[in-house]
Amino acid sequence: MPMISRVPDTGLWVLSTPRTSYVLRVDDTGAPRHVAWGPQLTVAQAGDLLVPDGEPASSFEGRAPVGEELPVDGGTRYGPPSLQVRYADGSRAFEWQPTGHRVLEPAPGTAELVLEFRDRLHPVHVALHYTVREDTDVIERHTVVRNAGESHVDLLRADSAAWSLPALPDYRISHVTGQWAAESRLRREPLPHGETVLTSRRGITSHHASPWVMLDDGDAGEEHGRVWSAALAWSGSWRVTLQRTHDGRAGFTGGVGHDGTSVPLAPGEEFTSPVFAGLFTDGGFGAASRAWHAYTRAHVLPHAWETAPVLYNSWEATGFDVDEASQLRLAERAAALGVELYVVDDGWFGTRRDDHAGLGDWTPAPKRFPRGLGPLADRVHGLGMRFGVWVEPEMVNPDSDLYRAHPDWVLHIPGRTRSELRNQLVLNFARDDVADWAHDWLARLVAEAGVDFLKWDMNRAFSEAGWSGQPDGHDRLWTGYVHNLYGILDRLRADHPGLRVETCSGGGGRADLGILRRTDQAWTSDNTDAVDRLVIQDGFGQVLPARVMSAWVTDVPNQFTGRTVPLRYRFHAAMAGLLGIGGDLNRWSQEELAEGAELVAEYKRVRHLVQHGDLYRPAGPRGEGPTVVQYSAGDGAETLVLAWRRGPGRGVPDAPVRLRGLTPGARYRDARTGAVHHAAVLEAYGLRLGLPVGDWSSTAVHLVRVADAGRED
């Protein structure tokens, strides 16, 4: 079946993925209309879905509020617009006039449909892009708006796409909320009638919400039910507006910016929205997650096939008290544990002794690193590890040489207070001179110090988001900032192909498909408490894969919660993602160091499953029983089960856990105990975890398919 087909004489287009179909048409008014999104259809079957346009039920209704591919502002439309244009004369509206279409093949196994339109009155052109691939059910959509006239226009709203759902008995929304150190709390609740807005007005993706959403009819579970979802590939302010209508429909639209901002378009200028990708599955939330993870690894991450190294970060051991001698001692202990990447955190540069000064002055502190970072990097490399450093390129302390030289470089509004958060201000990366400055010192640092890894942090939201002296600057900076951020990362990586980057924003404040297209992993949360992390990691993993989820083992009592849990429990929690260690190794006992080395070695034996395998969630972190996650090889050759329990739970049965992703009829050997299990039993009746009795117990079970395939009769 072709990936993109046109049904003759109907105006229908059918987009086919391996298991789903997406059908749309251009109606009699010239507007692009949604028809269907769900299980796969043939072209002939799709034709059966074509129905005549109906008249409004009354003069108060207008066009149906759900069902257009990109709802515009104008005519008898009264729902949230995806495209809202203000012209030079102050008028608003858009009327669709089709001007053509194209079917492209941008890469093998990929097809792209482009539907082209213009406004009937003004020379504003709109192109709707749809991309499908033969190896994923994820459909990528974005919109291009071009001002072909001689007068300025403003895009008051310029969403990437609108997605429509079929009429269902009920609707339920899944999304995440939170705050700093409490990110990615999964919420699964009925979708209210009317409009629901998910957004970030902070200039970054934010800790408080994430630019993805899932909808189902309320009956979907982890392994069953129809789920529609979408994720926006954007790392600045964003907005997704959902609506549930009186006529039993639901849909949502999403894109860049937030209320009160616009995208200016000068004559001849065009705006290309970020991708707003969508996915349908009838395999429940687990299948949706696995499809998103596979898509991200295959089509988003730049080096997803690599095995991410075990990392050590010095922050919790040293704070700002960083010097060459102390870092060398920690590096030697880290290497003995089996660490493969050593990262120096904040405090290595300028006059940085606390968070009051030094940001912006990115040269090694002469008294602490009299020979620069090179000798430390050489020693780290000599110990068999890669070398990384923490940077925060987008920020400046007022107490810095950079700010004293360039006070105009920060986001500000003349005459207004410059609000400081964490004693710092935000540099205006929308300015090309600021972006060039950041690229130059980063490139110099990487080259001169032999840096293999950057932990790129961003520790505050925007305020006084102005750009004086630039026409339309107060609006242009919101998208210009992100585009220049992306440009710096793209240039830096092109110049240094071996460089790897972690995105961080005080933890999980900037983790999205846009930033992950040019970074390798994401710092999930500043909160490293192992018990809290199980909840945070569960929400994070609904869309984003374990291959990008940084997780550290740190000391107890935990600095955020005061909680003390065993070292093994902390390791097992961190082993569910990219294992890192952040404790003060100088304070670890010989017993702890020996246990840590054993657990690092254990992770290395199974990390290919965590980083590249399929995720199953047999038991989430919100019940009385154990929390359980499972990572399976795509061919069913082996699987890893990680489980954690808060306490003995009197009266709570220690029930077996049913596994998934195994080879039918095969047998599996426990790599630790040698016990052999039948796949049929593991899937139908479950695996007994054998968690130790007592508080904060955990286990890791590695099952490997028996070599003779162990076929049952």
From TrEMBL:
Describe the location of the Glycosyl hydrolase family 36 C-terminal domain by residue ranges: 627-703
- Domain named Glycosyl hydrolase family 36 N-terminal is located at 30-266
Keyword Ribosomal protein annotated:
no
One Pfam family in the UniProt entry: Glyco_hydro_36N
| Domain of life where this protein originates | Bacteria
Q: What keywords are assigned to this protein?
A: Glycosidase, Hydrolase
What's its top-level EC category?
Answer: hydrolase
- One GO molecular-function annotation for this sequence? alpha-galactosidase activity
* CDD domains xrefs: GH36
Q: Which reaction does it catalyse?
A: Hydrolysis of terminal, non-reducing alpha-D-galactose residues in alpha-D-galactosides, including galactose oligosaccharides, galactomannans and galactolipids
Entry annotated with the keyword Transport: no
Gene3D superfamilies annotated for this entry?
Aldolase class I (3.20.20.70), alpha-galactosidase from lactobacil brevis (2.70.98.60), Golgi alpha-mannosidase II (2.60.40.1180)
The catalytic activity of this protein is classed by the Enzyme Commission as 3.2.1.22
Which family does the record claim for this protein?
Answer: Belongs to the glycosyl hydrolase.
Kindly give the PANTHER family that the UniProt entry links to this protein. ALPHA-GALACTOSIDASE C-RELATED (PTHR43053:SF3), GLYCOSIDASE FAMILY 31 (PTHR43053)
Q: What is this protein's record name?
A: Alpha-galactosidase
Organism of origin: Streptomyces viridiviolaceus
